[in-house]
């Protein structure tokens, strides 16, 4: 299909190492993806050759750093099909991006105003809204999840009403792999007069986001899941939505004028970027997205889903395994519970064989309660994984299960 996972894998230095005497099989990319050489080199080059603070300097190094920093903003805008770089706000991660919106929206929330979330949300797209429930009297309404892990779109429209101020929904569940119909959700919410925030921290990696096609007011992503560094995230907002938000933090860069008696603020996106920004990290994210752009997203998704299907087929006859989330069209996340074994123990035993998986609640406790599990184990497939990785994962999982029987 025009995609060579072995060639892609060769660009990740860490994937050549061993763990516990075994070749590393890294299946924890949904938590944080590994970094290709292109990202590492771009960040090193920035620090070694042209590091300085951005925007306010007039010397050569500052001009070079500013150019690279703002070019990264342009790369993100192209990646999301945003209408302009001015709709891209740098944050320190997806969590801060959601909190930025919650802080601004919260100033106008009145007791009884409603915010709709889903049962499959990550805590970063739940807790900020709980803060508005506690501090402003907002009411949280929950869109239900079906037994197969899909969002109940028959029940969703009934949640909307005249008091709905915001709908906050994940593009792709970090536990179930479910890819939600975010354009349809956005259309329904807008018809009810509500704004829409999409948590794209997983969807940006696996669902080829197009913010103009989705039509959302806000879209959030984080760099470290997109093969970029930690400490950098993005808030996309329409020009109207960003203009309506007040400043999130105060300091340098986000102001237009400061006097003893008053202060005026910069236009978006700089209004929301107080202080010295994550310069090297933004450059690193830009490098990650440029590197990623060499691949056909459809071919990458087909490869990842083939790995997922292979694992599921090999495990089909094992009745002790319960797969969580089997919605049609889901992404390549295999989250499961093993009968008679705790998820943490399963993950630790698999690590003995060099297989890195995630275990716990995956920052989605309401979903765990909905599914009736106290914890689960998750294998997340990425473009650098291979069929050999998948077989090693299945073999290690069977050995882990046999340890408990």
Features of this protein?
405 residues; Cysteine desulfurase; alpha/beta; EC 2.8.1.7; 17 strands; single chain; 15 helices; PyrdxlP-dep_Trfase_small; PyrdxlP-dep_Trfase
Radius of gyration, in angstroms, nearest whole number: 22 Å
Characterize the main sheet: 7 strands, mixed
Strand order across the largest sheet: 4-10-9-8-7-5-6
Query: Overall mean pLDDT score?
Result: 97
How far apart lie the N and C ends?
A: 42 Å
Which strand-content bin applies to the residues?
A: 15-25%
Question: Which parts are unreliable, with pLDDT below 50 for 5 consecutive residues or more?
Answer: none
Secondary structure tally, helices? 15
**Share of residues in helices:** 25-40%
| Tally of DSSP β-strands | 17
Shape: globular
Class by SSE composition: alpha/beta
Q: Quaternary state, please?
A: single chain
Provide a descriptive summary of the structure in words.
This protein has 405 residues and is an alpha/beta fold. The protein contains 15 helices and 17 strands. The protein has helices spanning 5-9, 37-49, 60-80, 94-106, 127-136, 156-159, 182-191, 203-206, 211-214, 239-244, 279-292, 297-315, 343-351, 365-371, 387-403; strands spanning 18-19, 22-23, 25-26, 88-91, 114-118, 139-143, 164-170, 195-199, 218-222, 233-237, 255-258, 263-265, 321-324, 333-338, 355-356, 358-360, 376-380. 47% of the residues are buried. The model has no long low-confidence stretch (mean pLDDT 97).
Quick recap:
With 405 residues, the protein is of the alpha/beta class.
């Amino acid at each position: 299909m025009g995609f060579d996972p072995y060639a892609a894998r060769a660009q990740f230095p860490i994937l050549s190492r061993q763990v516990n005497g075994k070749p590393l099989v890294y299946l924890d990319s949904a938590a944080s993806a590994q970094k290709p050489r292109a990202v590492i080199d771009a960040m090193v080059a920035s620090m070694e050759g042209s590091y300085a603070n951005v925007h306010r300097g007039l010397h050569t190094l500052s001009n070079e750093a500013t150019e690279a920093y703002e070019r990264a903003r342009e790369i993100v805008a192209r990646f999301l099909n945003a209408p302009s770089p001015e709709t891209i706000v740098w944050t320190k991660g997806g969590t801060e991006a959601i909190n930025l919106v919650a802080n601004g929206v919260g100033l106008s929330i009145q007791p009884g105003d409603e915010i709709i979330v889903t049962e499959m949300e990550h805590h970063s797209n739940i807790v900020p809204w709980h803060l508005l429930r506690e501090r402003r009297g907002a009411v949280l309404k929950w869109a239900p999840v079906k037994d197969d892990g899909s969002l109940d779109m028959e029940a969703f429209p009934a949640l909307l009403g005249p008091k709905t101020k915001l709908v906050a929904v994940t593009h792709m569940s970090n536990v179930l792999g479910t890819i939600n119909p975010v354009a349809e959700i956005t259309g329904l919410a807008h018809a009810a007069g509500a704004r829409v925030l999409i948590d794209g921290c997983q969807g940006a990696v696996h669902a080829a986001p197009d913010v103009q096609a989705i039509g959302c007011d806000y879209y959030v992503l984080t760099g470290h899941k997109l093969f970029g560094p930690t400490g950098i995230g993005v808030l996309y907002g329409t020009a109207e939505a960003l203009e309506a938000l007040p400043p999130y933090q105060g300091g340098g860069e986000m102001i237009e004028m400061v006097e003893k008696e008053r202060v005026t603020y910069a236009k978006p996106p700089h209004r929301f970027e107080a202080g010295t920004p994550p310069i090297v990290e933004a450059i690193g994210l830009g490098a990650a997205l440029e590197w990623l752009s060499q691949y056909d997203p459809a071919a990458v998704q087909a490869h990842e889903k083939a790995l997922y299907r292979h694992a599921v087929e090999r495990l089909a006859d094992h009745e002790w395994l319960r797969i969580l989330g089997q919605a049609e069209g889901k992404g390549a996340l295999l989250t499961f519970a093993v009968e008679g074994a705790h998820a943490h123990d399963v993950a630790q035993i698999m690590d003995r064989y060099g297989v890195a998986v995630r275990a716990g609640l995956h920052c989605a406790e309401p979903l765990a309660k909905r599914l009736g599990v106290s914890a689960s184990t998750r294998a997340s497939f990425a473009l650098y994984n291979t069929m050999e990785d998948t077989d090693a994962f299945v073999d290690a999982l069977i050995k882990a299960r046999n340890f408990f029987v």
